[in-house]
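Structure first, sequence second, as always.
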């Protein structure tokens, strides 16, 4: 009678099978020494079956050996593909990261260059003197708001500067409910900086119109504030 099916009850058989799946190869199973006792004969009588079982597990012609070899071949192929994909991804990632780092560095250097140009062109605000005009502090605050990185402060500074222009025109005797009404009452050539006042006021209208396509930048906001400042300085208003 064939007792080969009993190999499935052998723990060493399953150990060898699992070990082989990870690339190992089992040696011959250790058999008991027949000289150890009375049971040696019975164990020896089954040695042929055990040896056959071991051979079926570890032999090169067995089913499991063929299955393991096929799995190893497939793994080598898949592993090679994965290595190639990872190498391509790594090269692409490093290249993209390098481009981003270069772009960020270029942007930072560009901003520094723009700030240097603005500083060279416009200079810095001089310190306030003790006898400064009462509106000087208010104006300096608006001017600083136009120099920040907050677009909301740019808009607020321009709108507030236009209100100050309307107050100035009111003190000069031009009547009207709004700054625009007072501007219409100013005759051409009434004062030197009138063209600057009109240009600043037109930009203010674009800024206040929410539906306008006008894009306000920090450079433009600061330029408009300097136009208002020219008018105020002509009349020593600030």
């Amino acid at each position: 009678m064939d007792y080969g099916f009993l190999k499935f009850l052998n723990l060493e058989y399953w150990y060898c099978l699992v070990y082989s799946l990870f690339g190992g190869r089992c040696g011959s199973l250790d058999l008991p020494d027949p000289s150890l006792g009375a049971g040696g004969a019975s164990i020896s009588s089954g040695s042929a079956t055990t040896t056959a079982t071991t051979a079926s597990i570890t032999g090169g012609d067995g089913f499991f050996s063929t299955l393991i070899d096929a799995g190893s071949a497939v793994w080598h192929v898949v592993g090679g593909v994965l290595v190639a994909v990872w190498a391509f991804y790594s090269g692409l990632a490093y290249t993209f990261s390098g481009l981003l780092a270069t772009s960020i560095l270029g942007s930072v250097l560009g901003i520094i260059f723009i700030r240097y140009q603005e500083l060279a062109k416009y200079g810095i605000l001089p310190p306030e003197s003790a006898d400064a005009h009462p509106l000087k502090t208010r104006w300096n605050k608006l001017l600083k708001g136009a120099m920040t990185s907050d677009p909301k402060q740019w808009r607020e500074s321009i709108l507030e500067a236009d209100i100050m222009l309307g107050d100035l025109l009111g003190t000069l005797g031009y009547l009207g409910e709004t700054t625009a009404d007072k501007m219409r009452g100013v005759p051409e050539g009434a004062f030197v900086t009138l063209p600057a006042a009109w240009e600043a006021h037109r930009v203010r209208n674009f800024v206040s119109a929410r539906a306008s396509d006008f894009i306000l930048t920090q450079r433009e906001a600061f330029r408009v504030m300097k136009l208002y400042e020219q008018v105020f300085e002509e009349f020593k208003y600030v």
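Margin note: The chain is about 65% helix and 0% strand.
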